[in-house]
């Protein structure tokens, strides 16, 4: 596997392509945007052309094209989730991260299984239905079994018959056999970020622990898919290296997964470096990404990989998150805590968290804001439980058929939230949006949406198609 990973991230190819497209002319830009509008994706050269855009008018065209593609494929849906940090123990020395092993400025903690259940109950009480389980890259004495036990604890937690319906996982690279054990726990997506695909930069910022091994980390997605986990998520930490290089490397990684497994990543995350306790680098990124460049990154990704979900975390401010919804973001975290125990204790301890948050709002406020913008907050997990994952999901997504399921399911899950968790103001805004959205739908999706929402309003829960 090491030989393979060394070959599919081709740094010299990326550098050569970027040099050729530093200042694209208007015709090149128009040609790429026209191709992107066909929603079949872009190649490395075309992505490089878009990274070279600096003209205001061209940027607006880029953003408009991204908005059209986002609306055509995803409509006005935004999937919501919460990260659940079960431990901030770590054996690695990553110079940008508060969890790094030698950082004495944070309080270390790994939650017990009872504490994980209580944390999950706190999330259920807010109305969450899906979580991303996160741990530092070291575990208590149980080792990897601690992660498996923690997933079971999340699924076991119940509050007034409500529960978390899907657990996605972001943990250290595993062996193929360990990935098979992870799949057996009925996870949704396995997510891992390379942080930076640039080898020399990777070496400079990872100075201790197993994470120093670039190839072992890069090949982890291959092992996950070989083990049968067909929904995977990739990403980089923007700010460590030139964002243009990272975008093309993401495309190489995605293309390699398509080549080997027939399907690319289910999601791509776009975290941008934020201050972290005990890390000067986190406050002074080597390659700072401006707000305009960040919006450009999101838009380019939506054009390059049109059917892949783009995840925006609460690292970013509410304003930036709002601006990127129209550019391609399809999933957001909300009401997040990055310190273990932060939900039950209702403490946002950024000193012991992994990074500083930009959006501190509670879930209900985020949902109200999203709904006021005309977007449907979705808590749906239907595709995972009906087996619409990996290639099966893409087979429906690429011809546009998945909207007939996702639109109605988003509305029913949103209505369930409104009936059971929303404040009165959020309920009124949300209820009006649900009815307006159904009124604007046609055919089978409209019929499905009306029936599912009516079932929810008649007291049923967890209804999907």
From TrEMBL:
One of its GO terms (biological process) is sulfur compound biosynthetic process. The keyword Iron-sulfur applies. Residues 76-307 form the Radical SAM core domain. Keywords: 4Fe-4S, Iron, Iron-sulfur, Metal-binding, S-adenosyl-L-methionine. PROSITE patterns: RADICAL_SAM (PS51918). InterPro entries: Aldolase_TIM (IPR013785), BATS_dom (IPR010722), Elp3/MiaA/NifB-like_rSAM (IPR006638), FeFe-hyd_mat_HydG (IPR024007), rSAM (IPR007197), rSAM_sf (IPR058240), ThiH/NoCL/HydG-like (IPR034428). Its cofactor is [2Fe-2S] cluster; [4Fe-4S] cluster. Transmembrane segments: none annotated. Gene3D superfamilies: Aldolase class I. NCBIfam families: rSAM_HydG (TIGR03955). This is 2-iminoacetate synthase. It comes from Sunxiuqinia elliptica.
């Amino acid at each position: 596997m090491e030989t393979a990973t060394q070959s599919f991230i081709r740094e010299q190819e990326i550098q050569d392509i970027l040099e050729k497209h530093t200042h694209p002319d208007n015709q090149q830009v128009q040609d790429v945007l026209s191709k992107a509008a066909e929603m079949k994706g872009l190649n490395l050269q075309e992505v490089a052309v878009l990274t070279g855009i600096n003209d205001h008018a061209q940027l607006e065209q880029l953003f408009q094209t991204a908005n059209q593609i986002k609306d055509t494929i995803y409509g006005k849906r935004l999937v919501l989730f919460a990260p659940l940090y079960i431990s901030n123990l770590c054996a690695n020395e990553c110079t940008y991260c508060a969890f790094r092993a030698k950082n004495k400025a944070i309080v270390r903690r790994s939650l017990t299984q009872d504490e994980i259940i209580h944390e999950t109950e706190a999330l259920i009480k807010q109305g969450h239905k899906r979580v991303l389980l996160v741990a530092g890259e070291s575990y208590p004495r149980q080792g990897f079994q601690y992660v498996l036990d923690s997933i079971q604890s999340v699924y076991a937690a119940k509050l007034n018959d409500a529960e978390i319906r899907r657990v996605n996982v972001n943990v250290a690279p595993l062996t193929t056999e360990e990935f098979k054990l992870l799949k057996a726990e009925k996870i949704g997506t396995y997510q891992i970020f390379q942080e930076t695909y640039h080898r020399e930069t990777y070496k400079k910022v990872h100075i201790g622990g197993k994470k120093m091994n670039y190839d072992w980390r890069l090949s982890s997605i291959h092992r996950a898919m070989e083990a049968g986990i067909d929904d995977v998520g990739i990403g980089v930490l923007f700010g460590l290296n030139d964002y243009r290089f990272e975008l093309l490397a993401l495309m190489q990684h995605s293309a390699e997964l398509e080549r080997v497994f027939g399907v690319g990543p289910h999601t791509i995350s776009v975290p941008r470096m934020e201050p972290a306790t005990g890390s000067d680098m986190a406050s002074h990124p080597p390659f700072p990404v401006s707000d305009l460049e960040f919006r450009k990154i999101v838009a380019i990704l939506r054009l390059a990989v049109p059917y892949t979900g783009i995840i925006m975390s609460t690292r970013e401010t509410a304003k930036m998150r709002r601006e990127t919804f129209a550019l391609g973001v399809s999933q957001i975290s909300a009401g997040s805590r990055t310190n273990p125990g932060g939900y039950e204790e209702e403490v946002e301890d950024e000193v012991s968290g992994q990074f500083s948050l930009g959006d501190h709002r509670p879930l209900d406020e985020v949902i109200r804001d999203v709904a006021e913008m005309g977007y449907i907050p979705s808590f749906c997990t239907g595709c995972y439980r009906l087996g619409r994952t990996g290639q099966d999901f893409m087979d429906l997504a690429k011809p546009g058929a998945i909207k007939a399921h996702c639109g109605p399911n988003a509305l029913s899950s949103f209505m369930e939230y409104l009936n059971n968790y929303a404040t009165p103001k959020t309920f009124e805004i949300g209820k009006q949006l649900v009815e307006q959205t159904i009124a604007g739908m046609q055919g089978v999706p409209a019929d499905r949406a009306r029936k599912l929402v009516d079932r929810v309003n008649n007291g049923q829960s967890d209804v999907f198609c």
